[in-house]
Amino acid sequence: MELHLIKKPSAYFYNINIITIFITIIIMMILLFASSTSTYKRSAEIVDAALTNAAEDIQTKSDTSENCDIFSGEWVPDPNAPYYTNTTCWAIYETQDCLKNGRPDLGFLKWRWRPDGCELSPFDPFLFLNLVRDRTMAFIGDSLSRNHLQSMMCLLSGSVNPVDVSKPDNPYSSWKYESYNFTVVNLRSPFLVRFDEPAAANTGIFQLYLDELDESWTSQIDDFDYIILSFGHWYSRSAVYHQKRRVVGCHGCHDPNITRTPPTHSLGVALRAAFEAINSRRSFHGTTFLRTFSPSHFEGEWREGADCPRRRPFTRNETALEGFFLDVYETQLKEYFRVVERGKMNKFRLLDLTRAMLMRPDGHPSRYGHGPDKRTAGTINDCLHWCLPGPIDSWSDFLLHMIKMEQRDKLFSVNKKMMLNKSNNY
Description:
Elements: H1 12-34, H2 37-61, E1 73-77, E2 111-115, H3 125-131, E3 136-141, H4 143-156, E4 163-164, E5 173-177, E6 182-188, E7 193-196, E8 206-213, H5 215-218, E9 226-230, E10 239-243, E11 246-251, H6 263-279, E12 287-291, H7 323-341, E13 347-351, H8 354-358, H9 394-425
Parallel strand pairs: 3-6, 3-9, 8-10, 9-12, 12-13
Antiparallel strand pairs: 1-2, 4-5, 5-6, 7-8, 10-11
Helix pairs in contact: 1-2, 2-9, 6-7
């Protein structure tokens, strides 16, 4: 099935405005130091005006006030969606290409997230690429992390496509948007810590070493400007937990000699270790986003043919987070606020998508993760990943908003420093 693509309004003039602002600041700084005292005062006034206007401009164009929680809201109709299709994007895996695989209903594509009391702008590829110019963004975690990256690359595909710069000796895949010198990285690490695979997939016992982080990503931290941590679902699997080279517990192992340990306890230990590893790298000055848990929507036991048959979003009163999903979410929040409250050096941000995605049971591939010729009686419906295009595209709306806020804060900081310098020189 094909869709007619509706192009998103360009933010060309907004992008040029931001670039112009930074160029203006640099030029004015040069004039500031090159001028005489009288000229200096006049130049300082011009700089102040430029900086103030820049800060006010970004704040005016931001989607929300400081007090608006963009993660609390509801899904509302969006007749302009989607902003790409399975025929315009090269990055879609077949297992998430619901349209190609014959999904007959298109209503799940026609929604957007609207926060309570404010608006969240749709993803603007030109603005995004200008804001992340000369940077590297790493998506670290499980297959939902990859799902997010592919969604973002699809949203960018209407503007520019990247070059595959993956190297055989690297433990990750990477693509570069050469005209912006922007690189994205996909690094698989479903537990964030070192683990041994079971002999039988999905039915065996994993061995997790909770105090030994996965070096495939920790060894690369200094190369990244943005890190997006995305994990959780794999902790529902049966596992034996190790710390300090000894077994400390297990989940689903059926061994009477091993202490039963809630999987979310082990998840919390791993997340805390990940945060500490990032903070220990003195050369890393970037931003780390913790993407909170994205619930699946199996109605029944997934191994027994459960499906996600709903065809519209839930309202906020129609569903609630509970059980393992609630435990994972609360554990992630606990560890995030622990690191923030301790005043750690590096910046951590919460990409709190759990509530929004809980309300989208209609956005999964279900049986349309496979073409008709590949569906068998034993095929498991996919109610975990997200169709592309689909609700997961909103994750990049949230991400862009948060990066814009970072840039706005930097402008205010520059403004404050220059005002202090001017005051000291009078």
